[in-house]
Design brief:
Distance between the termini: 66 Å
Oligomer: single chain
CATH superfamily of the largest domain: tricorn interacting facor f3 domain
Shape: elongated
Strand content: 25-35%
Largest sheet: 7 strands, mixed
Radius of gyration: 32 Å
Helix content: 25-40%
Strand order of the largest sheet: 4-7-2-1-13-17-15
């Protein structure tokens, strides 16, 4: 017999390529992302760490602010010290004027189309067609240098350019002052990030004040000056600095703010001050600084006197505060690594009994869990403030929703919603208040990472406080579990954007920037990398970029650099496309070994112009349903060719047992995303085998791939992704024999279209 040479085999393989008239780009889902990622450089290096020439600017603020409670107006004056650590001379400075989005003629008001709704509430109708536009926005009174000389400035919507007589040279600094005021909005009425809530029963307001002063834009190596206007969805890009802030307001108000209170004896009663100090050693339970009875007693006082609360904050990127005479105030000490941190809650009586039960517990759990996965919380406190319909974050302080009805009753939905939003907003201290990504450009870098660690924290909260989940198997997280993202990823592609999209340009910001990246990271941790490798890499990223400005590439590269796992395929699929996971069982075929060719084998030889004489002694795999195989229990053992081979090599195969059954299981991938192939094989004897094939299985088989199983057992079932780990959008093709699916995928798709 002739034997086929290697050259002949190569010729046969190469012949299959002949006839391709056009080339193509590398569209393999496992290609490296070098053409997509920004080039590494001396500022952001190839490992994902800050480079040797990394820099960022320092901006320090000294502010005096006064709250006019009667007229809901804020007045302020700030002195800014801008330190130029860049290698560039700066002839002008850019500032953010985010309050200008509330000007009655702000372009952001008209950024979306409008239509008449078929059903409207009276309040919605009045708000849409009757109410006059709110007259907000900064009133800039003056901009002067350190000597009091006026500086020219130009306002461009939500940005202000301050022109300098001389450029600020590298290593230099510039001091200037801005004086301003603005009308404070009702945040409940217009769903803004800050403002006040009015309580008609007692005539009081509760203020949550943020974006309240002209703030310096970021200047960095990535884009120079941050120049994307504030349109409402994309949040903030800010520099770190030190703050000294004096806040003057009615003497009967209670205040919390970014930073450490410098004059508690001056602004607190003797009893409140004693409690304030006692709380610093209260590691087991909160100390109530201002009780509900004391807060209620002040609701009708409306003091005409003023007091000034003074705060100091070091190395923060922003400042915010809350104020009202209605506030109940509690504080508890938490040990976080070597640091003692105060967990604080501030809320009106309308928040009870829910808030006094769970708010501070949620703050404490957040500090512990987030610190475990990132770094020890470095600030002196974390404050949760109750505010209707709010969920917003700032350094050391945040606003959170969750209110019982007037009788104090609340549903599980309200309870878990409140706990979750507190965890989420307090968690933002880590991302982006410390790991300081550009929220204006990349919403997922803070929202997605935060939502991921929020999920871990919620699960630990349920374990720590089992009474809170009332016998549920686990805390009912709204985002994070793979199954929760399926409706979004299976939805209408016309309304889905890649995660790597600007927040202003996506249709569904919640799923896009919060849920999908959080789910992706959960899958990455649980299914792809493993907890140990993931946790080390994630902590490495967080610690590398504490108090710095990371980019998306810094995150992607660090996760690979610290784990030695190539994840370009994952970032490409999950973050740069809108592909979804759909992997199924296409077919299962049983084969037997034969010395005689089947029709399929003969066709194979004919196509290649070969005959049996061209081949050495070979075996033929015959589909069991195609030709009957003789040989009793194990037809494989009856092959004379195979017997001869084993006899000739008896030294190596003396005790070999031939498999009774050979199955070819073909898996297909109608969805675009490549993922590890997790399979559960079931056998007639009742045993089950779990097998995870690496994602690289798809690198040369993007549409379908076959795995052959040789076993003594009879295969009776195959199930893909049995535990729902991969966010597979279609479970109807996950099983063989085909079983009744857990959800009717086609009906679901039709419903989405409708």
């Amino acid at each position: 017999m002739k034997k086929i040479t290697c050259s002949l085999l190569f010729m046969f393989l190469f012949s299959s390529l002949i006839g391709q008239e056009k080339g193509h780009k590398n569209e393999n889902k496992f290609k490296q992302l070098k053409e997509v990622f920004a080039e590494p450089n001396r500022y952001h290096n190839a490992s994902g760490a800050p480079g040797v020439d990394y820099y960022q600017q320092q901006v320090d603020y000294v502010m005096d602010v006064e709250l006019d409670d009667k007229n809901s107006r804020l007045y302020g004056a700030e002195t800014i010290t801008y330190k130029n650590n860049s290698p560039d001379a700066l002839p002008y400075l850019w500032m953010q004027l985010d309050q200008n989005i509330r000007k009655k003629d702000a372009p952001a008001i008209e950024k979306n189309g409008s239509s008449t709704a078929p059903i409207m509430t009276p309040s919605s109708f009045v708000r849409s067609y009757v109410d006059a536009p709110f007259d907000g926005g900064f009133q800039i009174e003056s901009v002067v240098d350190a000597n009091g000389s006026a500086l020219p400035y130009k306002i461009n919507e939500t940005m202000m350019r301050v022109d300098l007589s001389q450029p600020i040279l590298p290593g230099g600094q510039f001091v200037f002052r801005v004086k301003w005021s603005y009308n404070i909005n009702n945040h409940v009425k217009n769903r803004a990030r800050s403002g006040y809530e009015f309580f008609p029963k007692d005539g009081n307001k509760a203020y949550v004040i943020a974006q309240f002063f002209p703030r310096m834009c970021v200047y960095n190596d990535v884009e120079g000056w941050q120049n994307y206007q504030f349109w409402g969805n994309g949040e903030f890009a800010l520099e770190f600095g030190d703050y000294e802030v004096s806040i003057t307001l009615p003497a009967d108000h209670i205040v919390e703010a970014t930073g450490t209170l410098q004059n508690p004896k001056e602004v607190l009663s003797r009893e409140a001050y004693k409690r304030f100090k006692d709380a610093e050693e209260s590691f087991d339970a909160p100390v109530i600084i201002v009780t509900q009875a004391e807060a209620e007693a002040k609701e009708s006082s409306f003091s005409n006197k003023k007091s000034t609360w003074k705060y100091s904050a070091k190395n923060v990127r922003d400042f915010a505060f809350a104020s009202s005479r209605k506030f109940i105030w509690e504080r508890q000490a938490v040990q976080v690594g070597p640091n003692k941190v105060m967990a604080v809650s501030l809320y009106p009586k309308e928040g009870n009994p829910l808030w006094e039960e769970y708010s501070t517990k949620a703050v404490v759990q957040t500090l512990k869990t987030y610190s475990n996965y990132t770094f020890d919380y470095p600030y002196p406190k974390a404050v949760s403030v109750h505010a209707k319909n709010q969920g917003m974050e700032y350094p050391m302080i945040c606003w959170n929703y969750g209110r019982p009805d007037e009788d104090g009753n609340y549903s599980d939905r309200v309870k878990f919603g409140m706990i979750s939003v507190i965890i989420h907003e307090v968690g933002h201290n880590y991302f982006p208040m410390i790991v300081n990504s550009d929220e204006r450009q990349w919403g997922w870098m803070d929202e997605g990472l935060d939502t991921f660690v929020q999920y871990l924290t919620e699960q630990e909260f349920g374990v720590k406080y089992p009474e809170s989940i009332k016998g549920l198997d686990k805390y009912p997280s709204r985002r994070g579990d793979p199954s929760k993202i399926v409706p979004y990823m299976a939805g209408d592609q016309d309304f889905i954007s890649p995660i790597m999209s600007n927040p202003e340009n996506v249709y569904q910001l919640g799923p896009n920037a919060y849920a999908k990246p959080a789910t992706a990271l959960n899958i990455l941790r649980e299914t792809i990398m493993g907890k140990s490798a993931f946790d080390h890499a994630f902590k490495t990223y967080a610690q590398r970029w504490m108090f710095k400005h990371p980019t998306p590439e810094d995150f992607f590269r660090t996760m690979e650099d610290a784990s030695a796992i190539d994840l370009d395929w994952f970032w490409n699929g999950w973050f740069y496309t809108t592909d979804y996971v759909d992997i199924g069982v296409k077919s299962v075929k049983k084969y037997v070994v034969s010395d005689q060719p089947s029709k399929a084998a003969n066709d194979y030889l004919k196509e290649r112009e070969l005959t049996l004489e061209d081949l050495p002694e070979v075996l033929f795999m015959v589909e069991a349903t195609e030709e009957a195989a003789s040989g009793g229990d194990n037809p494989t053992a009856q092959s004379e060719i195979l017997k001869n081979y084993l006899n000739e090599n008896s030294a190596d195969y003396a005790d070999v047992e031939l498999p009774k059954n050979i199955y070819a299981v073909e898996f297909d991938k109608p969805g675009g995303l490549v993922m590890p192939l997790i399979v559960e094989y079931s056998y007639a004897d009742g045993t089950v085998e779990r097998k995870t094939y690496p994602v690289q299985l798809w690198r040369k088989n993007d549409a379908a791939v076959t795995k052959v199983i040789a076993t003594d057992k009879e295969l009776v079932g195959v199930r893909v992704d049995p535990d729902g780990e991969t966010a597979d959008v279609n479970t109807e093709n996950n099983s063989w024999p085909k079983e009744e699916a857990t959800s009717d995928f086609e009906a679901f798709k039709e419903k989405l279209k409708g």
